[in-house]
Amino acid sequence: MTGVKIISTGSALPSRVVTNDDLSKIEETSDEWIKKRTGIEKRHFTAEGESANSLAVESAGRALEKSGISKDEIGLVLTATLSGDYSTPSVASFMQSALGLSKDIPYIDINAACSGAAYAVEIARSYLVANQDKKKPYALVTGVEELSKLLDPADRTTNILFGDGAGSVVMTTKEGPYASTLGAESSLAINCPGAKNLRSYIRMDGKEVFRFAVKILPYCIKETVSKAGLSTDDIDYFVCHQANKRIIDHVVRAMKLPKEKFYCNVDHIGNTSGASIFILLDEMEQKGMLSPGDTALLSGFGSGLTWGSVLVTYK
Ligand code: UT7
C-alpha cells in the first residue's frame, strides 16, 4: 500500500493570549467552569496585522524550511480551513506568492471543519499517487483557523472553546501500511451561516456534538487501524482533534488505550478546528516526542458532521 510519510511540521500561533480569567471579565463564566468542562486554560486570538492567511503562510514557511526540500519539489498546496481571509481567493493560492512557490501546481482549500487535517492528508496522498511526478513528489498541507472572528460574544457555551492558529506538514508517499476513514452525515449541529447572514457566528449544539464525538472517534480509530492490518498496539501516537479534553479522556477510558499515546495541548491552545491536529503534531515534534519510523493516527471530527482518520509515518 502507498502510505504517507511526514517530512516536517510547522505551526504559527497569533500573539494575543486570552486566558479563562480574561473571558470571565467580559462574560458570565469562570476559569473553574471552563477548565472542568473542557480542560482549556487559554487560547490565542489574532491581533492587529494577524489573520488566517498570515498564520498559514508563517506555519507553512516553517514546515518548508525544516523539510530541507526545494520549493520546486512541492507538487500540491492544500489548506484545510473554514475561516480564511476571503471566501475567494483561497488561503492556498495566497501561499504561491507569499512563499515563492511554483505557479504550475494546484492550490486548493478544503472545508471539512475539524476533520480537515485528516481529509487533506488523504486527498494529498491520493493526488501524489495519481500524479507520479518524480520532480514534485511533496505536498505542503496546512490547517488554519481564525475562529475568533466567528465567535458570538453573547454565546458563552461556544465562545470559550475556540482559538486561532495554523499547523502545517510537508508530506510525501511511502510504501507501507496505510488506511484512511473519511465520512460525513448531514447535520447543522455545528454551523456558521456565512454569506446567508452578515453577523456570521458559529452555532453549536454542544451536547449533541459531545455525544457524536465520543462515538465517532473510537469508530475512526478502530476502523482505520484494522483496515491497515494493524492493531492499536502498533500505533505510537493517537493524534486527535483537540476539541475538549473530556472527549479524549472518555475515548482513552472506553477503548482502554494507554493515555501516554494521546498527547493533548487543548489546555493552552483551545479548539482550533482544522488546525488543531497539525499544531499538536508540531508541538510533539518540537518536544522531541517523535522518532523516525513512528506511526501516528491523525483523527478528527466536527462540523458536517464530518469525521476522518489517517495513518501516517514520521520520517
Ligand atoms: O471542534 C468542534 C467540536 N465541538 C465539540 O467537541 C464540543 C463538544 N461539547 C462540549 O464540549 C460541551 O457540550 C460544552 C463544553 C460546549 C458545554 O458543556 P456542557 O456540559 O454540555 O454544558 P451545557 O451547555 O449543558 O451547560 C451546563 C450549564 C448551564 O447552566 P444550567 O442550565 O445548568 O443552570 C449553562 O447555562 O452551564 C452553563 N454554562 C456556563 N457556565 C459558565 C454554559 N456555558 C457556560 C460558561 N460558563 N461558559
Which short descriptors sum up this protein?
26% strand, 3-oxoacyl-[acyl-carrier-protein] synthase activity, 315 residues, Peroxisomal Thiolase, Chain A, domain 1, alpha/beta, two-stranded antiparallel sheet, acyltransferase, 10 helices, single chain, 34% helix, ACP_syn_III_N, 13 strands, binds oxa(dethia)-CoA, nine-stranded mixed sheet, beta-ketoacyl-acyl-carrier-protein synthase III activity
Question: Total strand count, please?
Answer: 13
Radius of gyration of CA atoms, rounded to a whole number: 18 Å
Helix-residue proportion: 25-40%
**CATH C-level name:** Alpha Beta
- Given the C-alpha coordinates, what overall shape results? globular
- What ligands does this structure carry? oxa(dethia)-CoA
Helix and strand composition category: alpha/beta
Distance between the termini: 17 Å
CATH second-level architecture: 3-Layer(aba) Sandwich
> Element order, helices and strands?
EEHHEHEHEHEHEEEEHEHHHEE
The number of distinct structural domains comes to: 1
**For the record, what is the CATH homologous superfamily label?**
Thiolase/Chalcone synthase
- Biggest β-sheet strands, sense, barrel: 9 strands, mixed
- Overall mean pLDDT score? 96
Instruction: Determine the number of helices (DSSP H or I, runs of at least 4 residues).
Output: 10
Give the DSSP E fraction (strand runs of 2 or more residues): 25-35%
Q: Could you tell me the CATH topology label.
A: Peroxisomal Thiolase, Chain A, domain 1
